[in-house]
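Problem 12. The chain below contains 118 residues. Write out its predicted structure in token notation.
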Amino acid sequence: MSIRTEKVSSLIKEEMSQILLRELVIDTDSFLTVTDIIMTPDLKIAKVYLSIFDSNEKKEATINELTRRKGEVRQMLGARIRLKYTPDLQFYLDDTLDRVDSLERIFKKIRNDDNNTS
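Solution.
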């Protein structure tokens, strides 16, 4: 990733966080965090990874709502940043924390099983 791509990614991450926190009204009580922004080399597409603290159904509903309203979000983003092109937004669920939690439970079970057999 080039330095320019990293800078734009960082800027978009910061602005997207503010938009989702303060400007965009979504029908959800979920706790939303922008975990990462991956830009294509031509800076035309921004893949927005979100961590959502809620049930799986509400996570999918939130992603679907954002995808449905991505034009509105893109317009808000374009008003906040100055780039030649405002990138197209693609929203993805970042389930890294869920996977870490699952692995932690497996490790804990293994430790407990080892302690019980000793």
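Discussion. The two ends are 50 Å apart (CA to CA). Students who got a different answer should revisit the alignment rule from Section 12.3.
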